[in-house]
Each structure stands twice: as C-alpha cells, then as structure tokens.
Amino acid sequence: MYVVPQKMNCFLVLLILLTLFLIAFSLSSEDDHHLVIVPQSPNLEIGTNFTATCVILNSTEVSADDLYWKLSENIVPKEQYTKINKTALNVTVLVTGEKLEWLYCLCKRDVGSLEKGTFIHGIALKKGYRPGKPENLSCMAVQEKHFISNAFRCQWDAVGQQSRDVSTLYQLNVDVTKIRAYNVTTREKHAQVDFVDSFPNHVILEVWVEAHNKLGTIHSEHLYKYADSFVKTNPPSNVQVTSEKSFTTSLLINWTHPIANVFLKLMYQIRYCQNGSQNWTYVPRDDTARDIQSFRLQNLNPYTVYVVQVCCKNHKKGYGYWSDWSTNATKRTPEDIPNKPDLWRIIAEGDGINQVQFICKGPLTNERITRFNIKVQDQRDKLKNGSLAPESIPINRSDSGPFTVLKQIRLADRESVKVFVTAVNSVGISAEESLVITEKACEPPPVRELRVRPDGGRLRLDWKPPHGTAVSEYVVEWISGDNTDWQRESRGTRHATIKGPLEKFVCYNVSVYPIYSGRVGKPATRAAYLEQGAPLEAPDVRLKGKPGHNEAELVWMEVPQTRLRGFITNYTVFYKGGTETREITVPADSTSCTLKSLRRNTKYDTWIQASTINGSTNSSKHSFTTLIYAPGEMEGIVVGVSFGFLFLIIVTMLFCVYKKDVIKENIWPRIPNPLESTIGNWSPDYPLKVETPKDNGLCGVSLLDVEVGDGKCMFEEDKASLALKKDKYLSEEHSSGIGGSSCMSSPRQSVSDSDEGGDMADTTASTVQYSSVVASNGYKGQTPNTQPKQAVFSRSESTQPLLDSEENPDTLLQECSRQSQRVPRGPRPTHTQRNGDIMEQQEELEPLDFCSLEEDCEQVTPTDSSYMPQLVGYRPQ
Amino acid sequence: MNGHVKSMRFQQFMEPATTLLSLLLVMAVDSSRAAAANRNQQCVNSLQRTLKLARLVQKESVDLIRTYKASQGVKAELLCEASFKYIPNINISGLESWERLLSIYAHLWDFFPHFKRVYEQQVDLQPPASPLLAELSRSGGGRRNLASLISSFYQSLFPNLPVPEPAGGPTALPSPQNVFHQKVYGCEVLRTYKDLVSNVCRELKTLKSKVCQRRKRVNPLLPEAGRTPRVMNNRMTDFER
Lengths: 877, 241
Fold this sequence. Notes:
Oligomer: heterodimer
Largest sheet of chain A: 5 strands, mixed
Strand content of chain A: 35-45%
Order of helices and strands of chain B: HHHHH
Strand order of the largest sheet of chain A: 2-9-8-4-5
Helix content of chain B: over 70%
Radius of gyration of chain A: 64 Å
Number of strands of chain B: 0
Largest interface: A-B, 21 and 24 residues
Number of strands of chain A: 52
Shape of chain A: flat
Structural class of chain A: mainly beta
Distance between the termini of chain B: 87 Å
Helix content of chain A: 10-25%
Number of helices of chain A: 13
Largest sheet of chain B: none
Distance between the termini of chain A: 186 Å
C-alpha cells in the first residue's frame, strides 16, 4: 500500500529537478548573450512602421555605435537607426509583405572569436492585417417537426485580408436577453449555436460577430431582434385545390399552417400557372398577407389544369424568411360553354372579285369546341349559302393552327355580306358573333394618325378615332408573310399593345380596323419591326451596260423582305480604284447609282452596303474596268489628226508654191563663180593652171594621210618628206575647211592643222577658208624631189560653200580619191573634238573600201550626191 | 419718466417671455404625454410579448401532458386521476397586480426542480428516443424564457426597483418512489404545470387590460412601504431544470 506513493514522490522530485535544471540552463544561456531585442516575437501590421530596440547586456566591450541591424539578409540603413543611449539602439522599419522575416541586431566590432556568437540576437517579425469588420450578418433558425429548431445558424462576410502568420478568428455571440449568452468561435464565415432546451421564441436576441487576431478585435453590427425574425418555417402543408362545377373560372385552395400560431403568425404567398407552363402568376401579396388557410383563385380559364404553390413567412414585415414553395397542387377548372367566337376575315383582292375567308381564333383547347355554326347573308337579304339554316363546321382537333377557316366565298367589290358564327361544345352554344363585309366604296373611314413603335419588347400602337362615327370596337391585325393574327380592342382604346407573340427582325404590317357594329371599316396600316437588326444580306450590285471611261452605272435588286431584318435607311456604294476608296450614299428606295469621276483604264472594285438603324451589311464585290477612251473619242482623235496632217500638207504645198524662189535659194543656192572671187594673195609667178589628176596620173593612187607626229607609221623612205609636213605642206592633200560643221568638209582634208589647231577652231567658226595646196612632188610613197617645186597656195575669202559640180568638174578625180580616204589612225584634235559627231557619221557613211584602179577609172559618172566635198582642190585659175 | 420707461421695457420683455414660457409648458406637457404614450406602448408590447410566450408555453404544456399520457401506457388516465401531495401551489396570490406578477414568477420558479425530478425519472422509464424526454427537455426553455419575460415586464414597470428574486430554500420533493408513484407524480406535475400556465395566461390577459392603461393616471403597482420585493439576479443562468 505504501509502494505506490513512494514511487510517485520520487517521480515528482525528479520532475521538479528537471524543471529547475532547464530554467537554470535557460538563464545561463541568456546570460551568455550580450544583445537582446525588444520586443520579442512581435506581430506587426503590414503597412506600419515597427521600432525595435537592441540592448547591450553585461558587456562594456561594445557600445551602441558598434551595433547594426539586418532585416533578413539586408543591412538596415543607418538613417533608420536611433541611438537611445550607450547601450541601446533603436531601428525603425516599414513592415511590408506577408512573409515572415527575421530582424537581427549584430555587432560590427571584432570582439574575439569566443564571444562573437554572443553579440547577435534576432526576432521573427510576423506580419498580418488588422481584422476587418464583418458585414452582412444574417442568422436563421429553421422549423423542425412542429417547432423551431434550437440550432441557430449565422453567416457573415469577412472584410479585409488575412496573412498566414496572423489569421483571424470569428466569434459568433448570441445573447438571449437577460437569460443566457451563447458564443462559438470559428475560422469560417459561418457558425451555429445551439440553444439550450429550445428556441427562445418571443424573446429578443442580440447577435453579433467579433473578428479578432493578434493585431486587434472588431465587432460587427449588432442585430437586436425578436427571435421570430430569424425563423424560416416549412412551407404550408397539405395544400389542396378544389374545383367547383358552378365556378368554371375559379379554384379554391386550402392549406395547413406549417407551425402553430403560438410560435409565430404567418402570412402567405400564392402562385399558379397552367400545367406545363413555368410562367407563374402571383396573387397580389396584399390579398394573402394574412393568417389565412384558404384562398380562391378567380378569372381562370375554364377546363384548364392549373398548378398551385403556396409559401409563408412571419406575418410581420421584415421579420423572418420566406419558406420554400409547397409541393405542386394541380386541379382542372370545370368546363364552360364556349366564349363568343373571335371572328375575322382575310380578303385576297382580285379584279373586282375578292376571295374572302372567314376565320375564327382557336378553337381554344379549354373550350373543347366541337363545331362552329356559320351563316352568311348578303345585305340584300339574299342567303349566300342557299339556306336559312346555319352551316355547321366540325372542328378537326388534329388541325392545331392559330385559327380555323370557317368558310371561303367570292365577293364582288360592290357586294356586302354579313356573317353569323356560333361555337358549340358539350356544355352549350356560345353567343353569336357577326361580321359585315361592306362594299369597298362604302367602307367606313379608318382611324387617324396611326403610329406603331416598339416599346418594352412589344409593339405599341397609338391612333385617333375616325371623325364623326361611332366605333363599337377596333380590330388590330398584324401580318407577317402568310401569318395573320389579330386582337380586339374596346371602343375607347387609343393605345394598344400587340399581345400575340412577335418575333424580332420580322416586318409586320400592322393594321387597325374600326368596327362599326359589325361593319368593318377601312384599315390604317403601318409596317413595323419589334426589333431591327443588320440586314442578313446586301443586294448584289452589277453594272448596267458597259462602263465608260470615267463613269459607270450600277444597279441592284432589292433584298427580300425576310432578309432585311429592318428598314433600310440608305445604301452606301463603295468603289475602290487602286488604293483609293470612295463611297456614295443613296436613299433606301434607290436601285441604281452612277459612279462618276472615275479614272480611265482603271479596275474598280465596287460593293454596296445596306444599312438599318441597327447595323450594316456589305454585299460581295463586283469589279469592272473603265475604258481608255470614251466612245467616239478615238475616232475624233484620228479625224483631228488627219485633218491636221492634211492642213499641214496643204500649208506646206502652198508655201512651196508661193515661196518657190526662196526654197530654191535655200536648197539650191547659187554658187558664186570662184573666178569672180577676189583672191587676197596670188602668186603671179606660179602658173595657175593645174594639171588635172588625170593628166598627172594621180588616178588610182591611194593617198595616205600622214600625220605630223605619227612618225612610226611612216615608211622610211617617206621620212624625207617630213620637211614638207613641217612646212604644213602635204602633197596630194586638199583641205576644204568649212567652218567646223560642214559635212562636206573632211577633217582630214584640212591641212591647217597641227600647231594651228587652236587657231583654226577660232577662225573657222566665222570664216570659211578655201584653200588648195598642190604639191608637185607626187603622191605618198614616192620619194619627193630633193628640190620641191614651189608650192602654190591659194585662198579664197568667200564664205560660200563649194558645189562640187561647179567647183570641180573633174569629179572623177574625187571619186577616185575615195581610195585616198584612209582609216583614221588616231584622233585629230582639231576636228574630232569639234565635229566628233560629224566624224562618226562620215566614217559610217563612207565605207573604207579601196576600189581598184580600173574600177575607179571606169567610174566616170558623178556620184549621187550633187554636192561633194572638194577633195582635189580648186580649179586652176 | 424713467420708471415708465422701465415699466414699458419690462412689459415688452414679459410678453415674449410669457409666450416662451407658455410654449415651453405646452411642449413639456406634450412631451410628457408623448413619453407616457411611449411608455404605455412599451408596456403593451412587453406584456403582449409575454402573453404570446405564455400561450406558447401553455400549448407546450398541453402537448406535454398529452405526450406524457401517451407514453405511460393504457392506464395513463388512471394515473393522472391520482393525487400527489408534493405538488407546488399554483394559485396566483396577491391583491395588487405587482404581487400577482411576483407570484407567477415564483410559481414558475418552483416548477423547475419538479420538472428536473420528473425528467430524471422518465429517463429511467422511457427509451432514449422517447418524444416525452425531448418535450420535457424543451419545456424548460419556454418556462425559463417566460419567467425572464415576466421579470423584464416587472422591471419595465418598476425600473427603479430591483427585480424580485424567487423564494429561496429547498423545494420539497418527494422521497424515492416506486414506478407507479413516479408516473403519478410526473402526471401530477405536468397537469399542475398546465393549470399554472393556464392561470398565467388568464392573469396576463387581465393585466393587459389594466396595468398599462392605469399607469397613466396612478401607478397601482407601486409597492407599499416595507414591502420591497426581493432581489434576484438579472440573468437567469442559474435556473435549473
């Protein structure tokens, strides 16, 4: 019996010793550290400044000046330090980021390796946000069996952020006033408290949520309400619908309170719809916002199955929650005699004879009409159907169109009939409906100022009644394609909304017919869209005819109505030539457009854009190319040019005729007789008579032009003749310099070259020098005489060009001298530079052929050219 | 001259002062009437709320006795015809309304130990899922809330007086019994409790028609000198089943 206590005592002693050891160890270990940061393990709000103090303990080796701070891996700048005293240093850092960071206090002075580890201290910075004030607190207690559950559930919205290190807890507090308080803590945004014993009915509850974390606490708004305000009951139970045969448009609903009135009084809401439909009709809440257990639905359709649902809540406004809807309760209303048939007509107009269809809405499924009785009577008391008895139209139930065609008749414009229709079902016969189709000429006046516009997803009509006549009712008819529908409006109606289902982007022709005691008046009609959209397609554009040189006419067909989806506001024709795109906007009723100011011979892409108020659509592109010339333009040019040319010819001819002498003077100038010319310097001792080449035997001798500086091209035997050249005397060479431009002047014929080349250029421009140098030493290749004959130099000061025929009748010699025209060996500065072109022409025109002596001799006729350059020289005078 | 001027000035001062005083008097009367009306409305509301809860408790008591009888077997009617001597008095005593309120409060308080005893007995007699146990448990809440509302109502009538505390001392409970006696005792407790709650409802209806309106003229509930009600804790967390 004593063993166990002794063991327990030993254990307790050991435990105490261990604790003391740990404490001592921790104290001694604390003593080893000389730096301590205050505060320890702080929780910091992100976005605020945090100030920590590093204190030096039990050491005089270091001072506050030797300390520095590190935040994680970064040294904190000294600007953030504050020295408190010799042993304490503050640092202030901005708390950023949610991640946990370490703040270290260190010593930068070397205090020895043994103690180095004791001059460091760090704290963990846990960061977070202050808790946000919880919002939208709401609580609920639901019904359980026949009382309110004592589970009280609340939810709220958390506000603000949370970090991982500083999380927020929520405490839901429910204070049953002066009785008991409940609370529960959670990290979620919802919680539940369970009341002891039972739900505190009729007692005030105070509910709030307290959000708290390490950085603070905040309360939500306090809900201070009666407990009933939080109750959501079950839906009403045992909902039953009763049908009473005598009330064909009414159903009686009964239900049971889901909970006893002593818990809370309820108000109800009822909704119903036809079976299969989800279009619920809600009974006005004022009618059911009472503690009731039954309600009678009225204005229902006969013989129709209705679905009814009921829900409830605390009868006080703002108290409690609506329960779920009860399960469906279905019932069919009793069958009734049919309503008066909704009779109307469709008229297909012809040439004087119209096809008239009498139609009737329905039959409605709830009326179970078995047949219609129709009687057509003309206004002159003549029965159209040939009998006084009404015609019976049985109803085919498989034909479920929007209306039933009762009868079709042919009616002339000037005829008038009255139709009587009744509907029959198993319960009885409906009231009779009649309609009068009057003569066209006698139709009563239409309504005035009809306007149709979309309004809130429906088409709204406004009109004014016709003048001076008593309208009994109006029929609003709307037609889209082959679909016709109508509705009736009372006589006092000025505004109506089409109740039937309408489709968007479909054009409806809406007509208002005034009905005068069954007589159908003239309609007023407008086209309207419930909603317009961009056209589905734009018209295809094409060229009308061929394009012109600067214009083209485009045509297009109107888009079918079903593809328009709206009223066309305008068409925009685009045409693009090259990079330039232009456009023309034309009215909506246009079907053609002429493009003008086009460029010639340019390919144009064109397309059309059809626009409605809600969008546009482009057509496909059509390309064409404009013409180069306008029609007739080419012919005009040809004719014009022809006439011009003809005119020029005529003018030329007339000029030639009238200015014959002038032309002759210019073209065939009169060459002055050299014999009559005055020679500046004559050598009287020298015989002027020059032997003809023939006589001198120069015919057939090829002459080579030998240049002064071209010594290497000369024969050795010719070197002796250099003296001649130096004296500007060249045997067998004839120079005829005619300025610098004469085609008749061959540069190689100029002897006044070489040194005087520059002077020549100056003088030949103004003065033509005729010179003839005749050498007596024969032709090249022969050794000149040692004593050359005195050269004769003649010069004429005349500027008149020489005519070969006149100058030298011995053209034969000239022709023969062609052989003397050698291939130029090099440039001749004096002539080639000035008359290079001419040189080239001459070289081209004058093939460098050498004719044989015999051939040349036989060539006695003059050359084609009537004007030949003077080669041989002047006729001896 | 000066005296005349002074008199004139005094008269000039008196006229607006009189008007102002009259206005203040009217406002004071009106505000006192409004305050009285407001207090009266609060009285009515508080009493109505109390009455609602009393009706709920009454319904629960009726359901409870029905459930009790159903859960005791075929001889339930016979059991409930027998009498038991340890049942608390349910007569609401007192001549004045405030006395009767205190009496109601005290009787409700008296039933807590009895219900606790019945519950303990029925736990042994009924299966755990018995609806009787749940209803017995749930009835404590209604009773506690009703006692609290009556206390609040009393406090609203006498805001400057401490709320009366129920009579202290041990409640006389029956000594250990056999099963038959337990069942008789339970039925007797529930039936008596139902009668008490019925009396409470009746009493509250009477108070509704008298107390809130009579307080306008003279407060009939003011306790006489030397009859200060006993003080109790505001919060009734000490209530036991």
